[in-house]
Amino acid sequence: MKDLDRLLQRWRIAKVSPFIPSGGRILDIGCGDGALFKRLHGRIGEGVGVDPTLTAPVQAERYRLLPGYFPAALPDGRAFDAITLLAVLEHIPICEQPAFAAECARLLEPGGVMLITVPSPAVDRILGVLKALRLIDGMSLEEHYGFDPRQTSAVFSVPGLILAKSATFQLGLNHLFVFKKTGMTRSPDVRSDRG
Fold first, then answer.
1. CATH code for the domain in which residue 15 is found
2. Where are the beta strands (DSSP E) in the chain?
3. pLDDT beyond 80 at 108
4. Domain of 176?
5. Beta partners for residue 48, in sequence order
6. How far apart are CA 67 and CA 57, in angstroms?
7. Rounded distance between C-alpha atoms, residue 140 and residue 90, angstroms
8. 53-14-98-104 Cα dihedral, nearest 10 degrees
9. Structure confidence by residue, pLDDT tens digits, 44-67
10. Does residue 136 have a pLDDT over 90?
11. Phi and psi of 74, rounded to 5°?
């Protein structure tokens, strides 16, 4: 990864970090090299990352990274306090998204959070130029197909999940979605922010 790739990655992590429960069990789908867990080192109880680009499992003090695809690569059916999808949804074929969302909801503890960042389709053109200029590696850019972030709420409108927050960042080029699993004592405020 190039410096600009890392900067964009850190920005996404910074957007979801405030929603990650301290001491929780976290699943990072599309974890790459485990950057999320490295940044949250003392805050999480246990982290599990899944990524098809990994060539071998990685075991660290508070997390492990597993090669493969979600959910098949998970070793068991234990639930998580938070599940993150940072710039991942736009890589998942539309026909697979309903089953993917249902599995996420199933593996989330009641009261747990689903944290998703999705770039605008306009980002693909920008990243294509940056990749041509060799300023970024473009992490699997060829898999993008122009997913419309406005569809995220519909994809995750599965039983048990409610949208708690939606916002944009990076001048509106990226979107943050926070879903909560029902079973909490009170419903979260649903709001939309820009910033």
1. 3.40.50.150
2. 25-29, 46-51, 58-59, 63-67, 80-86, 108-119, 161-169, 174-181, 191-194
3. yes
4. 3-194
5. 27, 64
6. 6
7. 10
8. 80
9. 999 999 999 999 999 999 999 999
10. no
11. -70, 135
